[in-house]
Amino acid sequence: MAWLFLVTAGIFEMFWATMMKLSEGFSKLNYSLLTIIGMIVSFYFLVKSLHALPMSLAYPIWTGIGAVGSIIIGMLFFKDHLSLLTSFFVVLLIVGIIGIKVTSGH
């Protein structure tokens, strides 16, 4: 169940980052409120995952899911472009997240 909580936390991290972008510097109230709600939900599920997972595992995976997911959302919805070198490092980030999970023993 802890892994489900952690993945959910990561998904809500992507959500709040996207809402923060849409809030245009917190000038749009609805998106600003959704940002705050997304943060609260994300932290809630991260805390739930920490009941069973060590922080040294959960935190980097949570941030990694949020980072990679936000990159994908940026490319798909905001027309962000990555250089070939940046794309290479995103792949390394994904490999690192998977490596942390696989070698953790949890």
Overview of this structure, please?
The chain is mostly helical and 106 residues long. It has one domain. It has four helices and no strands. The longest helix has 23 residues, at 55-77. The model has no long low-confidence stretch (mean pLDDT 95).
How does the SSE layout of this entry go?
Layout: H1 2-22, H2 29-49, H3 55-77, H4 84-104
Helix pairs in contact: 1-2, 1-3, 3-4
Features:
transmembrane; transport; 4 helices; Multidrug efflux SMR transporter; mainly alpha; transmembrane helix; 106 residues
- Indicate the low-confidence ranges by residue numbers: none
Shape: flat
Whole-number count of domains: 1
Task: Briefly note the structural class of the backbone.
Answer: mainly alpha
Question: What does the main sheet amount to?
Answer: none
Radius of gyration over alpha carbons? 15 Å
Proportion of residues in helical segments: over 70%
Mean pLDDT: 95
